[in-house]
Design a protein that fits this description.
By secondary structure, this protein is mainly beta. It has one domain (about 5-115). It is built from one helix and ten strands. It has one helix spanning about 40-45, and strands spanning about 10-15, 20-25, 35, 55, 75, 85-90, 95-100, 105, 110, 115. The strands form four sheets. The protein has a four-stranded antiparallel sheet. Strands 5-6 form a two-stranded antiparallel sheet. A hairpin with a 5-residue loop joins strand 1 (about 10-15) and strand 2.
Length: about 120
């Protein structure tokens, strides 16, 4: 399945003076992470209706350690959603994304493909 089919959005993590934490839409160069629809549930549900989102943060982009979900962090490679690849961060750590709970999806993002 292609990442672009999973309604991906770049996000910035912002902690504001009011004490609130916000996930703000962003562009790739300024983003701390990405949100996309779960590929497993998207397939089971036949589309976006009833499908939950997954958030993945990049350590290389300065995402605060307290940003949840965690603890996973990735380095994003590519020019956009069409050729996005996740690499484990720090380098050499697992590059897969694994949800613990819910649907328990486990997969990879490689060259825009969510496997």
């Amino acid at each position: 399945m292609r990442m672009i089919d999973l309604d991906p959005k770049w996000l910035r993590y912002e902690k504001r003076e009011d004490g609130g934490i916000y996930f703000v839409p962003s562009t790739m160069p300024e983003a701390h992470g990405i949100r996309f629809l779960c590929p497993k549930c998207f397939a089971v549900n036949g589309g976006p209706s009833g499908t939950h989102s997954i958030i993945c943060w990049s350590r290389a982009r300065g995402t605060p350690e307290e940003a949840t979900p965690g603890p996973g962090r990735w380095t994003f490679h590519g020019t956009g959603f069409e050729d996005l690849t996740f690499e484990g961060d720090p380098v050499g750590t697992a590059r897969s994304v694994q949800l613990n709970g819910g649907c328990n999806w486990h997969g990879h993002v490689t060259n825009g493909e969510v496997i």
